Amino acid sequence: MTLLDATSPSACVHVTSQWAPGVARTRASSLGRAGLVDEVSVFFGKRLTSAVRALACSVVFAGAPAAVLAQEPASWKDPLTFHTFSIAAVDRATGEVGVAVATHAACVGNGVPWVRVGVGAVATQADTRTDYGPHILDRIQDGATPASALAAELARDPGRDRRQIGVIGVGGLSAQHTGAATPAWSGDLRGADFVIQGNTLAGPEVVRAMAANFEASGGSLRHLADRLIDAVAAADAAGGDIRRGQMQSAAVIVADPRPGHARREDKVSTFINVCENPDPIRELRRVYDTVSETLGYRTLQQFEGRDVWQLEIILQALGFLPAAEPGAATSTETHRLTPRLVAAVEQFRRAEHLEGAEAPPGFVDRDLVERLWAALGRVGKAQAVRAQLLEPTAVTR
Questions:
Q1: Does pTM surpass 0.90?
Q2: CB atoms within 10 A of CB 258
Q3: CA angle, corner 227, sides to 2 and 206, nearest 5?
Q4: What residues make up the domain containing 355?
Q5: I want to staple 252 with a disulfide (CB 3.0 to 4.6 A). Which of 16, 64, 100, 350 is the partner?
Q6: Do 190 and 84 fall into the same domain?
Q7: Do 335 and 361 belong to one domain?
């Protein structure tokens, strides 16, 4: 693992110039497919539940023609700038390649991270020249090493002193460049399966924390996207981007060659693009855990209490549950949402012709409660049930 500090003149190329001709045109065309799609754009290449499919429908428009330019955030200016920290990495056991990134600017996922299945990953940042992503991956796919591919692109870029790029091939070979004019603290660090780069950071401890976290998760039987999000969170906890009071964004993208792990032709299995959020890395984690349904993303419990008892009373009054036995306990503190009660809820939903409205078994929301009371009204039992519930539901504290 080596650490390169951009404050060392020997580590940098000293050139001052403007963007190369045609960069803005290239940037527009390369961003045409991504653009500003949504605050959170998600794609998981796996079989999904209907609720998750609805969330995944906010995915980047992968099939849009390249000639159609999508909307860019109003805060983006020329030259496009992402002062940021990122990690590009591979999992040589699975063949996954991915990038995770965070910054104090909008929609970082639309410009910095680039992946290609079976080839590698690129992060292009600072004064961001987006065509570094596809051009470097093209060169690697044609047989170049990451180092020679990066060198060839730098050689034709007069603005290279303001660029920061990390490249890693699917086999683990890597290359990095941190220009002399990138804002302090800036530097990069690499390991066997990753490259880390950042600028406008609190210090070198940021990239070191990211590296330590990613290395510690190696061999842990976790998906690459999961590990990348944790690494970015560790960097943020170590100080991250020093800027405050600006829009923030984060993203993770992974391509996976394994059969059944991605539905897209380009094998992108995971793409979460948090375009703007007060805590985008936390939101990145929340979306990942929610869509993957990772244990812990929600509180699991068997509900109990007065509301469950009221549900039972109403279902008994409507005939979907047998009436309570004479002398049976009536404590409102011990009633639980049992399988018997869940089955009664499902029977009521069928009676209301709600079979096509997909919901978890036993799902009761305000709409269903209104339907329950309406059903009681139709059979003339609403007032009697309200009288039965009146005292137990009084607030007496």
A1: no
A2: 12
A3: 45
A4: 306-390
A5: 100
A6: yes
A7: yes
